[in-house]
Design a protein that fits this description.
The protein has 275 residues and is of the alpha/beta class. It has 2 domains: 3-215, 2-enoyl-CoA Hydratase, Chain A, domain 1; 219-265, Orthogonal Bundle (Lyase 2-enoyl-coa Hydratase, Chain  A, domain 2), CATH 1.10.12. The protein is built from 10 helices and 11 strands. The strands form 2 sheets. It has a 7-stranded mixed β-sheet with strand order 1-2-3-4-6-8-11, with helices on both faces. Strands 5-7-9-10 form a 4-stranded mixed β-sheet. Strand 1 (3-5) and strand 2 form a beta hairpin. The two termini are 23 Å apart. The relative contact order is 0.12.
């Protein structure tokens, strides 16, 4: 595995080099998030945007936990909101949240498949981080939730907006109003978690299997599919269908299309090269 140094995350590639793993690496804080954490996640993703070898990225909590397993326990409440931000001035706080939104939005806009591999807690800002990923793979010991109400605050990193799109307004309202922890099995039953496994080797094997599958897929096609799903579904269907039509045209010029069709006709496995 190759690795690059950051303060709050670790970045590695699998042996084949066709998918990358970004691990939130703050084990003593249950991988609690600061602005720097999400900024580093975005910066790491940015380096993979045009990397033709990396077709997929896995976002997870560090395997080397010291307290309890956690994807992320949420915002680091002991951290400052940033230089010059004064907590007692409403407009300062609004601008501080705008900065956080900016990084969450940029992470969501990453053009390749982004998998949230959740083993343990995914609370508050951590749960919101899974919301900007494309797929969630969870271990059965995982929990999702928004505990902010107990601190007199609320999930303002997109939690009130994005979660309702996934599991419905009533379930989201219940989670946020009462700060409920929802287990991974329930989130799977609700359709939020895409794949579920026992913790340990079974979970790790599943994450590698799904990331490797996407790592061998046609990159341009995945990018077009992601944009149609992420943005085409936010507008009226006739406009979304325009996304599909234009996306189909863009994808048709990709080398991977010729490779895929030729491989099918020759009854062999395609060897996609990416962008």
């Amino acid at each position: 595995m190759s690795e690059e140094e950051y303060q709050h995350i670790k970045v590695e590639k699998n042996e084949e080099g066709n998918y990358a793993v970004i691990s939130i690496n703050r084990p003593d804080k249950l991988n609690a998030l600061q602005v720097l954490t999400v900024k580093e996640i975005y910066e790491a993703l940015e380096k993979f945007e045009l990397d033709s070898n990396v077709r997929c990225v896995v976002l997870r909590g560090t395997k080397d936990y010291t307290k309890k397993p956690a994807f992320s326990s949420g915002a680091d409440l002991s951290a400052s909101f940033g230089p010059g931000v004064k907590p007692n001035i409403p407009i300062h706080m609004s601008i501080a949240m705008q900065m956080r939104h900016r990084y969450y939005d940029l992470i969501e806009a990453f053009p390749k498949p982004l998998i949230a591999a959740v083993d343990g807690y995914a609370f508050g800002g951590g749960c919101e981080l899974t919301l900007v990923c494309d797929l969630v793979i969870a271990s059965k010991r995982s929990f999702f939730g928004f505990p902010e109400i107990a601190r007199g605050i609320f999930p303002a990193n997109g939690g009130t907006q994005r979660m309702a799109q996934h599991i419905g307004l009533a379930r989201t309202t219940k989670m946020i109003y009462f700060g409920e922890r929802v287990d991974a099995q329930t989130m799977y039953d609700w359709g939020y978690v895409a794949f579920l496994a026992e913790e340990g080797d079974e979970f790790e094997k599943l994450v590698d299997e799904k990331a490797s599958t996407l790592g061998h897929s046609a990159t341009t096609s995945l990018t077009v599919i992601k944009k149609c799903l992420k943005y085409g579904t936010q507008v009226a269907i006739p406009i979304g269908l325009q996304f599909e039509q234009l996306g189909f045209g863009v994808n048709s010029s990709a080398g991977d299309v010729k490779e895929g069709i030729t491989a099918f006709l020759r009854r062999k496995e395609p060897d996609y090269k990416g962008y």
